[in-house]
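Supplementary Note 3. Input sequence used for the single-chain structure prediction.
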Amino acid sequence: MKNNKYSNYKRAALGCLAGALLLAAAACGGSQEPDLNLVKPKKEQKRIVTLYSPMEKIDPDAENVARSAADKTIRMAEEKLGVTVNYNTYTAEDYQDKTYDEVALDRARNDMDDLYLLNPDTIRLLGEEGKLRDLSGLDCVKNLRDVVKTANTIDGKLVGIPQEVVAYGLFINKDLFDKYKLELPETPEEFLECCRVFKENGIETPVGANRWWLETFVLAQAYADLYNGGNTQAEIDALNSGAKKYSDYMRPGFEFLKKMIDLGYIDAKKAYVSEAIEGEGADFLAQKTPIVMAYWGAANTDTAYGNPDFQMLVIGFPSSRGQMPVIPMTGYGLGTNAEHAEDAEKVLDVILSDEALKVYAETNKVISPSKNVKVDCIPALKPLNDRIEENVYVLGANAGMKVEQWGNTCLIVRELLNGATVDECMAEFDRLQEESLAQ
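The predicted structure, written as discrete structure tokens, is reproduced below.
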């Protein structure tokens, strides 16, 4: 790689310069014998920052023409700061019986790395345990969207910052909607009517689903008012204190899903065992299923939905406030007892700067966490993007809520798919809330 060649050349040049200076010093000393008792200077220690991440980069100096967007920003930090970022990468070979998140928790609790790339529930747990530093003093924070700070702030401390805002939406076959003269749905009632028309016209399963993402319907309906009604923090405080119940927010969304299952708009048995995109993707691309749910990046990726044979649009989920994007939040965290904390903070300030986030966003064509970085999205994503730019969204993960949202809602939705009643699902939310109040 060009940068590596430059670094090698620079080191060689400095070595030659040092040798020349040594020869000059000897010449100035005439015929004097060199002082063999001089203390030789220690070799300069390489500055290292360690990062636990799912990215497959074992050797930080390895050339890789297909570097990911994140790797590009890491390289920017290495070159600007003169540090080396060493990746500790999750591999199934090392942790066959653990998930990425379980390994992340173990490593962070034992201070094994400096930086961690974390999922929402892991950010919340480690933040509550005091294992992540407050990042609010970084220079890059002043440029962050409010949604990023809201999602990853615990007890007044910003404990995680992402390189992209991951937005989920409904992927719509616009050609099929036009064929049956259907408007794009805004509310749950309008969505159910679209499904009814599709079903009556021979489309066996109007909504393609998998075992992971049906919670997006629930979260959009549960928290449309909470996040867009002007009283967000007071409502969250009431949930955290027990004055309000999570189950009361969740019930309409679960009743909506139950109705879709009962009417045959979702194949619950298939969804329960299907992996994301693998389960429903083929039917969507073959135009057998007009609606699926997925994340923003799937619209840009040929291996997902980036190259359909029909007009595709990505819209928000139905809610009382219209089409609603759902945004969970990952992020980089810095260990409280990080061995190389000072350099790690500097690395974060580089990779989360507007300059680096622009590189990241343009490479991956994603929404940036910086309010200053805008990237043109493909036409299919414009409806979803317009809502986000209007600051209309629901957080699928919020570190300030004592009951973790994204993972717990997903698991309880799976119980609904497996035959649980809505009341049984609500009882599980009540149990989780009681546990959080007892801590």
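The longest helix spans residues 2-28. The first strand starts at residue 48 and ends at 53.
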